[in-house]
Amino acid sequence: MATSAPPATAKASTTPQASPLVMRIIGAVALAHLVNDLIQAILPSIYPMLKASYDLSFTQIGLITLTFQITASLLQPWVGYYTDRHPNPLVLPVGSICTLIGIVMMSMVGSFPLILLAAALIGIGSSTFHPEASRIARLASGGRYGLAQSTFQ
């Protein structure tokens, strides 16, 4: 008695395909992420000019970094926590406006406290950008979460 194996059938792909629109949205978010991170890199690069122009000590330069890092890094999880529970499409543009105000302010500051405020605004903008842009990438992914996140990052 001969047994025969059932005919091999082609397994249908269960991986969702990303549409061109999805890839454009994810690409736009990735480009915005690049711009956001480049803006963050500008701040440390102008430390020598700030130090010379305002006769700052290294302690004051460190306080600028601390102010920026507290607002950019430590605030970010709280923003993500809040926006997960209360999604609001205005969070991303408001964060970008904070960054813009911080950059413009940094170009016109006249005192150390205003430098700290400008650094904080740049950090706040960054802390709102990352969780929201990551959420947008996931929502636009069409089920391809790994592709969306890796492209966004």
Offer a few descriptive terms.
0% strand; mainly alpha; MFS_dom; elongated; membrane
Write the layout of secondary structure elements.
Layout: H1 20-45, H2 47-54, H3 58-74, H4 76-85, H5 91-108, H6 112-140, H7 145-152
Helix pairs in contact: 1-6, 3-6, 4-6, 5-6, 6-7
Provide a descriptive summary of the structure in words.
This protein has 153 residues and is an all-alpha fold. The chain has one domain. It contains 7 helices and no strands. The protein has helices at 20-45, 47-54, 58-74, 76-85, 91-108, 112-140, 145-152. The longest helix has 29 residues, at 112-140. The mean pLDDT is 86.
Describe the structure in brief:
76% of the residues lie in helices and 0% in strands. By secondary structure, it is mostly helical.
Q: Uncertain runs with pLDDT below 50, 5 residues or more?
A: none
Q: How many helices does DSSP assign? A: 7
Number of strands: 0
What structural category characterises the helix and strand content? Answer: mainly alpha
Give the overall shape, derived from the CA principal axes: elongated
Main sheet characteristics: none
Strand content: under 5%
Mean pLDDT: 86
- What is the count of structural domains? 1
What gyration radius follows from the Cα positions, in whole Å? 22 Å
Tell me the helix content.
over 70%
N-to-C series of helices and strands: HHHHHHH
The rounded distance between the terminal residues' Cα atoms is: 59 Å
